[in-house]
Predict the 3D structure of the following.
Amino acid sequence: MLEKIFTSKIRVKLLEEFLLKPNEEFHIRELSRMIKSTPINVQKELKNLQLAGLLESRHLGNMILYKLRKESSIVEGLKMVFLHAKNEYPTKEGIQYRRMTESKPYKKTLPKGIRHEVLKRDDFRYVECGATNKQSPLQVDHIIPLSKGGTDELDNLRTLCNTCNISKSDLVHSSHISEGRI
């Protein structure tokens, strides 16, 4: 699916607009002006993004309005990729963005020894794909994020590779919800 997303400059510009303004709807001519491209090229790329499951559309009179399909499984990961490329990161509120060169907000660290205990318990491997620290930096992840009421208890911690932990953000997997953990 990524081959279908990142193969054109117009598509990248469109993705940036949609990912950084996730609650807005746009029509073709408006997008054409914003990214300085022809309506026909914009229309072609909007169709590709719809086929990839990233956009949805609706008719309003004779206009077609497009917006980000937030329930797509890769939207949050793509947003992080775009923010990283722009050297920005989301604040706690998830709305404003700051440059990485500014001071970062305080991030609580795990109690001493807990990180090593979790890594040791998980055999220094990512618990789902089996990657090791030689293949990808390992991180300890809160299954239920602290921001959603999770704790630093061992049963709420697991080892994830850096890429998966970043793309997970503060999401909770549906299996943990169905288990009654949240």
Observations:
- Strands lie at 26-27, 55-60, 63-68, 88-90, 97-99, 138-142, 157-161.
- The radius of gyration is 19 Å.
